[in-house]
Amino acid sequence: MPVKIPDNLPAAEILSAENIFVMSETRAAHQDIRPMKVLILNLMPNKIETETQLLRLLGNTPLQVDVDLLRIHDKESRHTSLDHMNTFYRDFEDVRHKNYDGLIITGAPLGQLDFEDVTYWDHIREIIDWSQQHVTSVLFLCWAAHAGLYHLYGLKRELLKTKRSGVFVHRRSCDHHPLLRGFDDEFFAPHSRYAEIPVASLHAHPALKVLAESDEAGAYLVLSRDNRNLFVIGHPEYQKSTLSDEYHRDLNAGINPDVPKNYFRNDDPTQAPVARWHGHGSLLVSNWLNYYVYQLTPYDLSDMSAITPWEASKGADC
């Protein structure tokens, strides 16, 4: 949350130069506050598990967040009951007329398919296009991040020889960026995917900025320069057991997967996993909600034209 200070306090200029958000008494006196409206498009097979993971992160903020759950189609799921889907999820036709402060699009187990071969690819494109006019900020996770970068910016991913699974060390590519506020110079994050977009291609794109990356796992946080789209090429929402569950699922399916790196104690899958990313994941979502949703969104969601860049351009250059 921002710090409220006197209008002309000298510290204001110093803190602003470091991208630490401060609010003048004058601005604070004229602020209206309401709950943040966040839509989650859940593409993962186990809907309830993913809902819980994301709501855990969204709940770790002092902001009040109202959540709507969105499904991509009304077909029956093998992993989630139809009763659950019909009770808690909305179809796109139910929300297309609405505006939201934030949208989260989850990953999906589609890593080895071309985007055009995904049965609901046209629906994904439609929702992404809709979001650019109806949502203040969009958070894309893993497969959705690659899908968004492809659809919005024409960046093609490359399939990996083996699945990239594990917990990897990342470093900040920017100093004093609002999304990275409170981050250590190095931090851990989980990955579970079959493809990557070369870091050099992301750095070279004029509409994007890479905020965090890994020598071993590649790009992790990529932000559009208009601050509207945040691409998280990993899984900060994963709970401690998720990579283990995926590993044993693949073993039972006869896929013979590699052991997730830096995850099980002593890299031994017979031992318990070690969670190293929960603090960073909570901080990332809190920073996103505060700096790129709450501080940008209009009070009246019917007027999306009122969205303005965070302090015009702060944090835009790395």
UniProtKB/TrEMBL annotation:
From the UniProt record, list the reaction(s) this protein catalyses.
L-homoserine + succinyl-CoA = O-succinyl-L-homoserine + CoA
A matching Pfam family: HTS
Q: What is the annotated localization of this protein?
A: Cytoplasm
* EC number(s) given by UniProt: 2.3.1.46
Q: What is its main location?
A: cytoplasm
- Give yes or no: UniProt keyword Transferase: yes
The entry's keywords: Acyltransferase, Amino-acid biosynthesis, Cytoplasm, Methionine biosynthesis, Transferase
Q: In which pathway does it act?
A: Amino-acid biosynthesis; L-methionine biosynthesis via de novo pathway; O-succinyl-L-homoserine from L-homoserine: step 1/1
Give the enzyme class.
Answer: transferase
The active site lies at: C142, H235, E237
The site annotation (Important for substrate specificity) covers S192
Question: Molecular function (GO) terms listed?
Answer: homoserine O-succinyltransferase activity
TM ranges: none
What positions does the entry give for substrate binding?
K163, S192, R249
Q: Which domain of life is it from?
A: Bacteria
**Feature type site, description Important for acyl-CoA specificity:** G111
Q: Which family does it belong to?
A: Belongs to the MetA family.
Q: Which HAMAP family match?
A: MetA_acyltransf (MF_00295)
Function statement: Transfers a succinyl group from succinyl-CoA to L-homoserine, forming succinyl-L-homoserine.
Indicate what this protein is called per its UniProt record: Homoserine O-succinyltransferase
